[in-house]
Amino acid sequence: MGEYSYIAPRLDTSMNALGKGTFEDIRYVGRAPPAATGFYQVHVKEQTELVQKAIQPEPIKFNTTV
Q1: 8 in Cβ contact with 27 (< 8 Å)
Q2: Where do runs of H (alpha helix) occur along the chain?
Q3: 53, 60 in Cβ contact below 8 A?
Q4: What pLDDT shows up at residue 65?
Q5: CB 20 within 8 A of CB 2
Q6: How do residues 4-55 score in pLDDT, each as one tens digit?
Q7: How far apart are CA 39 and CA 47, in angstroms?
Q8: Is 18 helix (H, G, I), strand (E, B) or coil?
């Protein structure tokens, strides 16, 4: 998630400048740190899901209860 920490403030600045949202509208979509599955088919499935989440037009609904 290091890349996210780097890019999030820059996205916030860009979104504010364009009038397209705020920092609260930015969400991380990616794999957890120990992401390697070791199985190609699992990797393809996870990658497909990540791309779909990243490009969907509607906000992502997160389950905040852990």
Answers
A1: no
A2: 2-18, 40-55
A3: yes
A4: 56
A5: no
A6: 788 888 888 888 888 877 777 777 777 776 666 688 888 888 888 888 887 8
A7: 12
A8: helix
Q: How confident is the model at residue 60 (pLDDT cuts 50, 70, 90)?
A: low
Burial annotation 30-45 (CB, 10 A radius, 16+ → b, else e): eeeeeeeeeeeeeeee
Distance CA 26, CA 9 (A): 10
* Per-residue pLDDT at 66: 46
Structure token digits, residue 27: 């969400």
Q: How far apart are CA 41 and CA 38, in angstroms?
A: 9
Listed residue (2, 64, 65, 59) closest to 31, CA to CA? 2
CA neighbours within 13 Å on the CB side: how many for 52? Answer: 6
